Amino acid sequence: MPKITVGTVAVMLFGPPGSGKGTVAQYLTGCFDVPHISTGHILREQIALADGLGREVKELMDSGKLVADELVNRIVVDRLSRPDCAAGAILDGYPRTVEQAKFISEVLKQRALDSMVIYLDVDYDVVVSRLTARRSCPQCGAVYNLRSKPPKVDSRCDLDGTPLITRDDDREDVIRQRLDNYETQTQPLVDYFREQATWYYRVNGNDGSSEQIAERACALIRNSNP
After folding, report:
1. Which CATH number covers residue 36?
2. Does residue 171 form part of some domain?
3. 111 has catalytic annotation
4. pLDDT block averages, 10 residues each, the chain of length 226
């Protein structure tokens, strides 16, 4: 994808759980010269430490609840403080609440970063279908999908042969709880960012590959000449 020149910018990619934010964000790095930051990955790193905070985060995520704003805000600001984020970043999975959005908006202003929001609009039935088919490697963290990206050998990781698992937060009951949380806490971000973001784009994420969805987003941005 041709690079998009927008100066210093924080690209906030959001949508319901299972909308493909992580994979789309990876492809979006082909449009922007900024790193991809996944709050989900950062939180799982914390869980892997197995300390008190890691256990608290794991319990919240396994039950489908959202991690407290204060904790997520601290993690994101710490990551944005690193040298590779001097020109901005692609934020995947953050913010998820209006409170987080207000917080990060002030942080971006202080750092002279413009805000660009890409909202992946995906039907909930599509989300459930995608996530219940997802499998993960407990050894290396590779993620597969039985429908769209199956492993070469049934139920085993292509990279190290480890038996794949269904993560606790990919169970249907947990997914439904996450969607309820999203509807209550995250959906109001749509209205907030329409008013506050420097640029706001709504992208259909129901069909096509992650690369096609990312290119759809990039085409919208290019055509608007930010």
Report:
1. 3.40.50.300
2. no
3. no
4. 69 85 85 84 79 80 78 83 89 85 92 89 91 92 89 93 92 91 83 88 89 88 73
Instruction: Print burial letters for 79-91: b (CB count within 10 Å at least 16), e (below 16).
Output: bbeeeebeebbbb
- The number of domains in the chain is 1
Q: Per the structure block, which two tokens stand in for 123?
A: 């039907």
21 catalytic per annotation: yes
- The answer to whether residues 69 and 97 touch, using CB atoms and an 8 Å cutoff, is yes
Domain that holds residue 53: 9-123+186-224
Residue 50: inside a domain? yes
Active-site option among 21, 58, 79, 130: 21
Q: 178 and 17 in contact (C-beta within 8 Å)?
A: yes
171 is catalytic: no
The amino acid occupying position 109 is K
Q: Which of 58, 79, 130, 134 is catalytic?
A: 134
Q: Which two tokens stand for residue 141?
A: 């963290």
Active-site annotation holder among 79, 130, 135, 178: 178
**pTM greater than the 0.90 cutoff:** no
Q: Which of 149, 167, 176, 202 is labelled catalytic?
A: 167
List the catalytic residue out of 79, 96, 130, 135. 96
